[in-house]
Design goal:
Elements lengths: L4 H4 L3 E9 L1 H10 L9 H4 L28 E3 L2 E3 L4 E10 L7 E14 L3 E12 L4 E12 L23 E6 L4 H5 L12 H6 L9 H16 L7 E8 L8 E9 L2 E8 L5 E11 L2
Pfam families: MaoC_dehydratas, MFE-2_hydrat-2_N
Family: Belongs to the enoyl-CoA hydratase/isomerase family.
Organism: Nocardia terpenica
């Protein structure tokens, strides 16, 4: 057993201090394919040298941009082999728009641990506070640890929800690049599952897969560009469950339904008969 729920549940995560610059924001957006429409004014707002607008999904990489080593799944009461772990879900709630440069401190805890029988789900919640003492965002993420269940814990809730029973208001296809994962890993996620063919095969995949958070950011950008007129400042939150894998060079199909100030989204893979890649996706925004 590499999870001790009595120690892990509620345990504080290490405090992190970090900073970012407009160049970091540009690199992140380039990792999501920004600039494909290189003469479009809305697209170029992501890549401005002095004051680029910032997608809410940038919060998922802001603290790890300088990382050059594969991540470790090591917390109080938790020690898990990286090869056993997949990202389960991710949510970012913005308390204000993310500035193009800044300094912040993140604090967090392990908020939930669920026993799924053959696996365990570990939920972390962190809040980033700016240098002015005001909160910037709260992030909530879960990891799915294969073979780590069976500790007689609670199974936890099901997060699956139904899509609206009507045709989508928007239906967009977003291609990815063959080198998409190799570019995105420069944002701090050096997990070899996304770059090393032998590691990927040992983990059960024929080739390296795209980072789930890259897909997450790609879909977030697609929604902002399509529905919010490429105005990232209107987005107040974004969440998704990782429902499948995407290989670099595949195409994401993003179907979107407007429901008041929320966008309900389904993301699938065009080349594999619309196999799901993200589920339970929601983008919240202001008018």
């Amino acid at each position: 057993m590499t999870i001790d729920p009595k120690v892990a549940l509620g345990a504080a995560l290490p405090t992190q201090e970090f900073a970012w610059t407009p160049s970091d924001v540009q690199l992140y957006h380039l990792g999501l394919g920004a600039g494909a429409r290189w003469t479009d004014p809305g697209e170029l707002r992501y890549l401005d040298d002095r004051d680029p607008q910032v997608l809410p999904s940038f919060a998922t990489v802001a603290a790890t941009l300088r990382a050059t080593e594969p991540p470790r799944v090591s917390f109080p009461g938790v020690e898990i082999d990286l090869a056993k772990v997949v990202h389960g879900s991710q949510e970012v709630v913005l308390h204000r728009p993310i500035p193009a440069s800044g300094k912040a401190t993140s604090t967090g805890r392990i908020s939930e641990i669920w026993d799924k029988g053959s696996a365990a789900v570990i939920v972390q919640e962190t809040t980033a506070t700016g240098s002015d003492g005001e909160p910037l965002w709260t992030a909530r993420s879960s990891i799915f640890a294969k073979g780590e269940g069976g500790f007689s814990g609670e199974r936890g809730p099901s997060l699956r929800s139904e899509l609206p029973d009507r045709a989508p208001d928007f239906d967009v296809r977003t291609p990815t690049l063959p080198q998409q994962a190799l570019l995105y890993r420069l944002c701090g996620d050096r997990n070899p599952l996304h770059s090393d063919p032998e590691f990927a095969r040992a983990a059960g995949f024929p080739n390296p897969i795209l980072h789930g958070l890259c897909t997450y950011g790609l879909v977030c950008k697609t929604a902002v560009d399509t529905v919010l007129d490429s105005n990232a400042a209107r987005a107040t939150g974004f969440r998704a469950r990782f429902a499948g894998i995407l290989y670099p060079a595949e195409t994401i199909r993003t179907r979107m339904w407007l429901e008041g100030s929320e966008l309900v989204i389904a993301a699938t893979v065009v080349e594999r008969e619309d196999a799901p890649v993200l589920g339970d996706v929601r983008l919240t925004f202001t008018a």
